[in-house]
Amino acid sequence: MKIRSPLSFALFSTLLVLYGGAKTIDPYKILGVDKNASQREIQKAFHKLSLQYHPDKNKSKGAQEKFSEINNAYDILSDEQKRKNYDMYGDAKGAPGFDAGHPGDHGGYTFFTGGGPGQSGFTSGPGGWQHMGGQGGSQSFSFSFGGPGGSRSSGSHGGPSSFGFDIDDIFSGFFGGGMKDQGQFGDFSSFSSSSRSQSQSRSSSRSIRAINSEAFRKEITDQGMTWLLLSYTPSFQGKQYYESIMAEVASLLSEAIKVGSINCETELSLCKDLAVRPGRSPRLFVYSYKGSEKGSLEEYNGDLTAKNVKTFCQDHLPRFSKRISLNHFDLSSSNVERYPRVMLLSTKKDTPVIWRVLSGLYHKRFTFYDAEVHDVSDPAVKKLGVDALPAIVGWLSNGEKHILKSSISVKDLKSAIKDLSVLLDSFEKKNRKVASSWTSEEQTASTEGQLPLLTASNFDGLCGDKTPVCIIGGFRSPKSRDKLESLLSKVSKKSLSRRQNVASGSRDALSYVLLDATKQQSFLGAFEKSGFKSIDNILVAYKPRKGKYVAFTGDMTIEEVEKFISSVLNGDVQFTRTRQKPVLK
Fold first, then answer.
1. In the record, which residues are listed under signal peptide (predicted)?
2. How far apart are the first and last CA of the chain?
3. What sign results for the dihedral spanned by CA atoms 279, 284, 287, 289?
């Protein structure tokens, strides 16, 4: 149909008003960065301005509006697709509106947006409509005007308008007329449907894990990893700023912490249980291991900057590594938990961050130690066989020592944690093989009715700290071995030696083993200076936890051996402290 002149004029006037009233928003100018700025530069500028104009910090007039502009600008520039769309289809000033095309401007593409976070926008091009917006809010559309090279749409009145489309098409699109021939833009319902689709999340949002009750229980609670957690409700302003801070901290402490967010609108019960429900703004927490082996949530209340939050996170990293002095540490002591042990030797005055992280990741799989040493000339370092620092020394659960790595060089936190994790995984695998071999030896001896022969590989399990009293039968010939084994086997089956271990409530108080005295003379020397060299058969009752012993060198008869062991159990004999820690070769 024909459009009357007054109506055409009115519509034309309306378009001019929209054009003139469209608010200019140049995201580069708002953040104070140039168009070639890197994501790092954009992020730094955003952090600085957000902190300056955050409503909780700045109560001046216009701060709220400025804060919204900053968030909107960052929303565009932090998303690669949005930034690309802006650079391609916006004008030089970034002034959203209805702009005529010019030569070389992709046929007059432009876009309109109303400003503020969470908008939806579209751009029109040869490939059709593309969604550009955020999480809802005002709708905005792009119109292609007839600049050189741009497509034009013909109207029913016989020709295109100076804007590159027929006025009739506007009415058919927005008011439902002329549905048969919709022209370039289609009907309004398609716009409405597209406007509800979600945009690609910003990179910082994508890196933050949404946490529910199950995830918190399985992946966070007492798992040894430090988490930086955000509690919020969707209605809060400034969530993007918190997320950007978290993403930067996660990048700086890559592999050392994880980040997550809890939506207290959908996870209300979890937020109540954890006491993390936000008030008027989001809240930041660290799942910390600073105080004990049990994790707990600690709230961050400092200035919202990446540097300060990073420091807070570092302070709450696990502290499962025991700081020791090499001069006062018994390196040959057995591991009560029967885990392999690892020790870091470095010149650092405090436990390094990398070692603290690893102590959390491998908690309850290794026992961690660390010590400050000045150089490799230190006698204690030489004794360990370390020739370069920093170094990691490991002990298998059977007491066997290994230099895992020396002269350690670190490129960055992320690669260091990954490299050392590979090292620890390999050592743990080796320890499992040793433990499996040791178990097989014990089972074989038990099946054959024989007493196990004490070696370096099974000492920890047979005469380690978990054994209250270890009865060691030392022999120097095959004949004396057979005699001792027969006597101890008989005595071990009698009730006098079957008293329950008070500490465990289920294990025997005594452990019976044999020792080849000719091959382990230095071991016996830890009890008596001469190592009982002149005696063919000897019984030693050894208390590993107390480091004390008593020896029996009398007649090796069933009656005398029973009497000796009974006196040991009843406390009727005097124990003597060992000369040194007995170590098997």
1. 1-24
2. 105
3. negative
Question: How many Cα atoms sit within 13 Å of 427 on the Cβ side?
Answer: 28
Q: Are 166 and 157 in contact (CB under 8 A)?
A: yes
CA distance 355 to 373: 16
CATH H superfamily, domain 209-316: Glutaredoxin (3.40.30.10)
Q: Residues, the chain, total?
A: 585
pLDDT at 81: 83
Distance CA 158, CA 426 (A): 80
Is the CB of residue 407 less than 8 Å from the CB of residue 388?
yes
Q: And the tokens for 575?
A: 């124990």
Q: Which CATH number fits domain 323-439: 3.40.50.700, 3.40.30.10, 3.20.20.140, 3.40.50.10150?
A: 3.40.30.10
Torsion of CA 72, 77, 79, 82, to 10 degrees: 80
Q: Distance of CA 495 to CAs 31, 491, 499, 510, Å? A: 84, 9, 7, 12
CA distance 329 to 179: 87
Which residue from 529, 532, 424, 528 is spatially nearest to 475, judged by alpha carbons?
532
One-letter identity of residue 357? V
In Å, what is the CA distance from 475 to each residue of 141, 456, 466, 513, 519? Answer: 95, 17, 25, 11, 10
Asked if 398 and 456 count as a contact pair (C-beta separation under 8 A), the reply is yes
Cα 414 to the center of its chain, rounded Å: 11
Q: Which CATH superfamily is domain 27-87 in?
A: DnaJ domain (1.10.287.110)
pTM of the model: 0.49
Give me the amino acid identity at 497: S
User: Would you call the peptide bond into 27 cis, given omega within 30 degrees of 0 as the criterion?
Assistant: no
Q: Helices (H) and strands (E) in the chain — how many of each?
A: 19, 17
Check if the beta carbon of residue 286 is closer than 8 Å to that of residue 229.
Answer: yes
Q: Tell me the C-alpha distance between 8 and 14, whole Å.
A: 10
Please say whether the beta carbons of 256 and 416 come within 8 A. no
Label the pairing between strands 548-552 and 537-543.
antiparallel
Which of 27, 122, 34 has its CA nearest to residue 78? 27
* Regions of the chain where pLDDT drops below 50: 1-4, 7, 9, 12, 14-22, 91-202, 333-337, 445-448, 497-508
What is the tens place of the pLDDT at every residue in 461-502? 889 888 899 999 999 888 888 888 988 988 887 765 443 333
Angle at 294 between CA 288 and CA 300, to 5 degrees: 20
* Residue 6: per-residue pLDDT: 52
- How do the domains of the chain map onto residue ranges? 27-87, 209-316, 323-439, 458-577
List own/partner pairs for 15-24 with CB under 8 A and 24 or more apart: 15/98, 15/163, 18/97, 18/98, 18/112, 19/97, 19/98, 19/99, 22/95, 22/96, 22/97, 22/98, 22/112, 23/96, 23/114, 23/115, 24/93, 24/94, 24/95, 24/96
Distance of alpha carbon 360 from alpha carbon 362, whole angstroms: 5
Whether 23 contacts 115, CB under 8 Å: yes
Burial environment of residue 393 by CB neighbours within 10 A (0 to 12, 13 to 18, 19 or more): buried
